[in-house]
Amino acid sequence: MMSSILTAARPIKNGLLKIAPRETVRRRDCVNLFISSHQIHTDTAKKCPYNIVFLRHGQSTWNRDNRFIGWTDTPLTEEGVIEARAAGQALSRSGIQFDAVHTSLLRRAIRTTNVVLMELGQEYIPVHKHFRLNERMYGSLVGLNKKECVKQFGKEQVKRWRRSYDEPPPPMDPATHPFWPGHDPRYTHMIEQIPLHESLKCTVKRSSVYWDSVIAPALLQGKSVLVVGHENNLRSLLMRLEQIPEQDIIQLNLPRAMPLAYKLDENLKPVNLRADGSLDDATGFLQGTWLGGDDAVSKILKRDEQQVYDTSIQENLEIGSKSVGESWKTWMDLSSSRSAEKAPLKRRHPVLNGSTQIISESFEEEGQARRLA
């Protein structure tokens, strides 16, 4: 039996988070991460050969400040590192083993990748970086406060700029905008490919090239893939994978640092592991499984909605008074579904005690098969 590495938090001393020695645990004992609000179909889980997990990066400085980011290279905050670590430990407890990671050229995604791989003990696997997995270009909105834009342009207009399929924000002026990416050395060889602004439609076109030429062939070879990205870039991939209609995609939002796991069939179509064929409760659009549970994802999405659109709330909901240790506990509770377990059950479908073990074992069996091949 292969083992998984978990790291536990110790009490805070001098404002720093102390990390307990790593302890080895059996994967089959760490099955609660795949708890969802749905019944899991045993046979389907064992037959599906392909694995892919989508993960949005942790909190960056401009997430914290509620600003439009786009291609601007903002770093992770201390909270963002905690979010990434919690995501990595969620993946570790699930027993998933990856063959490669695909991410953007932006350091908030790259550092999230590095932190996650450290938690998994998989720093050795290839990490592929490409601009086609960059966040959507927000044009002239880059750097502006989102809530202030809601006050100026209205909630519906800002929502269309952020989430609609084919309405891009106003374009960026390269000559005058302080955050024009053309000044960044990583793009000097591709100035003509830097967009002035992008709709989700543009982002789908950009990310589809990478999916078709890199990710899909890897999946068809039987490899397990982790994609660490940005909200709109991941939305573009999920829109295509889930075949979400253009008129509905405006309603899909994705939380930071919550792994979304998929099993795919031989045609790289999502296999719905819920026996009743229902979609996730958190968004209502997805066949994948939120490793932290739908309830935790719903709470994060509600906060994000209020942070941007509720102008009656003056405080910045991304900035709390919690210490590092309290933040760590909060994210570990979310990523391990502890908060969902303690809350009163309001699920529409029963949870089978064995359902999480079925998926965890199927991932492990595939990993052993690859190692023996």
Account of the 3D structure:
The chain is α/β, with parallel strands linked by helices and 373 residues long. The chain contains twelve helices and ten strands. The protein has helices at 42-47, 61-64, 78-94, 107-120, 146-153, 155-163, 200-220, 231-242, 294-309, 324-335, 338-342, 355-372, and strands at 3-6, 9-13, 16-19, 23-26, 50-56, 100-103, 127-129, 224-229, 260-264, 289-290. The strands form three sheets. The protein has a six-stranded mixed beta sheet with strand order 7-6-8-5-9-10. Strands 1-4 form a two-stranded antiparallel ribbon. Strands 2-3 form a two-stranded antiparallel ribbon. Helix 4 (107-120) links the parallel strand 6 (100-103) and strand 7. Helix 3 runs parallel beside helix 10 (324-335) and helix 5 crosses helix 6. It is globular.
What Rg is obtained from the alpha carbons, in whole angstroms?
20 Å
Mean pLDDT figure: 81
Largest sheet: 6 strands, mixed
Number of distinct beta strands: 10
Low-confidence parts: 1-42, 338-373
> Order of strands across the biggest sheet?
7-6-8-5-9-10
Termini distance?
A: 17 Å
Overall, the morphology is globular
Count of helix runs: 12
Helix content: 25-40%
Query: Per DSSP, what share of the residues sits in E-state strands of 2 or more residues?
Result: 5-15%
Structural class: alpha/beta
Helix/strand order:
EEEEHEHHEHEHHHEHEEHHHH
